[in-house]
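Please describe the entry underneath.
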Amino acid sequence: RTLTVSLIMVDTGTQALLDNLRRLCADCVSKHQLSTARFYADKVCILSDYSHADVSVLAEIYFLHKEYQRSVALMQKHELIPYPSHMGVYDVSFQSDSLLVIGGGDENTSKQPPAAQAQAPSSSIMATITKPQRLQYLLLGTQCLFECGEYESCLSMLSNSDESALQYVQPDILCTRSSDANLDGEEITYSSLLCLIRGKALEKLCLDQRALWWFERALVFDCKNIQAFDCIIKRRLCTLAKLQTFLDKELHFQSHQHWIRLYYECKLNEMASRVESLQRMQDILDTTTPNHQQQPQPTNTSNIATRMLSQSNDLKMIQANCLLNLNQFRESYLLSIEIKLNDAFHLDALVAYIISLVELGKQSELYKVAHDLICTYPDLAIAWFSVGCYYYMTRRYELSRRFLHKATCLDKFFYAAWIVYAHTFSEQDADDQAMASYRTVSRFFPHSYQPLLFQGMAYLNMNNYAYAEKFMKEAYKLFDADPMVYNELGVVYYQQKQYEKAKDFFNTTLKYISADCYNQWESTFVNLGHCYRKMQQYEEAIKCYIKARNISPKDPMILSSIAFTYHLQNKIDQAILFYHKVLALHPHDTFCQELCHRALQTATNNLVIS
C-alpha cells in the first residue's frame, strides 16, 4: 500500500512538472524566445517519453528556428513521418494496423517481409495518432524539406505518384466537409495545404502542368487557400478563360465567403487588364466606402467583408498593377503612393511603384527607394530589382543587367525583373539576346501574352514581318484587349504596305484606350494619319495629325506630316506655314527644306499666272 501511494505521488508530480513545462514552452513561443522554448520543449519530450504531441511541438520550434533538417530527423526518428521513398506514406514501414488508405491491416502486414516488419512502428504508437494529426505532421515535414531545397524528397514524402498522393490526402477533406469543425471556414484544411506545398515543389522542378493541377486541387479542397490562387496568377500557369471557368464551376463559396471570390475575380485582372474590369474594381471601392453623411443601413456579413476588402491595401495593389498594365503610369504611381503611406513596407506593392517611377522619369525618388531597400532588405529580390531599374532608367544597361540578374537568381519567378532584363538588350539593339531572354520569360510564364508581344516587336525591329505577325497573333489569342497588340499589328501591316488592314488595327487600338490615356498613344494617331495619307484620304489624315499635335505641339515629325499632307492637297499656303514651323525648330531638315522650296515655287507660279 505504501509503494502504491508513492507511485501515485511520483506520477502526480511528474504530470504537474510536465504541465508547467508545456505552459512555459508555449509562453516562450508566443514571446518569440525560440532558443528558450527549444530548451524546455526538449525536456518535455524526455519527461513524456517522447509522446507524438510533444515531439511535434519540438519539431515546430525547430522549424520556426530554421533548423529544418533537425526537425525532419526528429519526426522521422519518432515515426511521425516516413523517410522519403517512391512509396511515401504507402511504405510498409509507415503503415498502422488499420493501414488508413490501403486497408486490411492484418492480412497485408502478414505478407510483409521480415525486414519491413522489423522497421514497422509499434501499434501502440500508431494507434494514438489520428488521420488529421498524421496529415499535420506530413505538412510540417514537407514544409521543412521544401525550405531545405530538397524538392524531390518533398514529393516522395507522400508518394512520387500523383494519384497515390491524392488518394491519401483526399479522404480527409471528404470527411471534414461533412463535419461541424470546418463548416464556418474557421481553418484551412491540411489536405489543401499539402496540395499547395506539393504544387510549389513541382513548380521548383519546372513541372508546371503538374504544379497547376495540385494548385487547383488545393483550391477545390479549400477555396480559402489564397496562396494557391496567387501562385497560379504569379506564374501565369493557366489562360485567363480557363481560370475564369475554373473559378465559376469548380470552386464552391459559402454565402459569407463571397468576398474571397470577389478578391479572386479582381486578382485575375493582374494577368491581363481591361478598362471595364478596372472600372468595376473602382465601383467596388466607391460603393463600399462608408459615407458618414448617410444614415447607416443594415448590412449582412458579406457586405461587411466586402467593405473590409475594399479598405485593405490588397485591392488597391491589384488596381495599381492593372493601371500599370494599361499604361496609366501616373494613376498607378498615385495609388502606389497611397499604399506606401498606409504601409511603407508593403513589398508586393513596390513593383508597380518602381516601374511607375521609371516610366515617369522620377530618377531622384527611385534612387532613394533603391537605396532604402538595399539597406533594409539586402537578401530580397525586390531590392536588387529597384537598383537594376535605376540603372535602366539612367541608360547604363550593363550595370542594370548585373543587378536584375541577381534579382532573378534570388527569385527565379520574378516576372517584372525578367521583362526589364530582356528590355535592356532591346534598348541596345541586341536582338538575339533580347529574343533569348523573352523566350525564357515565355518558358517560365507559359500563358503570359506580353513576352510573345515583345518577341514580335523584336522581329519587327529586324524587319522580319512574317515572324513578327506570327508572335503578335499568338499574343492576341491569349489576350485580345491589349491596345499595344493591335498597335503593333498595325505597324506590321503598314510596313507590308497593307494600309487598309493597318488602318483597321490602329482604329481598334484607339477603341481600347480611355480618353485619359491619349497622351501615351501619340504614335498611334501619327501612324493612323500615315495610313489615311497613303490611301489618299487627306482630310482624315489631317484630323489624326491634329490630334497628335495636340499631344505634342512642337514635334517636328508631326508638323512636317501636316505640311506634306496639305502640300498633297495643293493647299500651298497652309503647307508653307507648317514647313516654316518645322524649319524654325530644325533648320537643317533637308526634307522640309526641299519641299518648302518647291511649295514656294508653286505659290510664285500661281501668283504669276493669276
Notes: Residues 1-10, 96-127, 175-184, 290-298 have pLDDT under 50 and may be disordered.
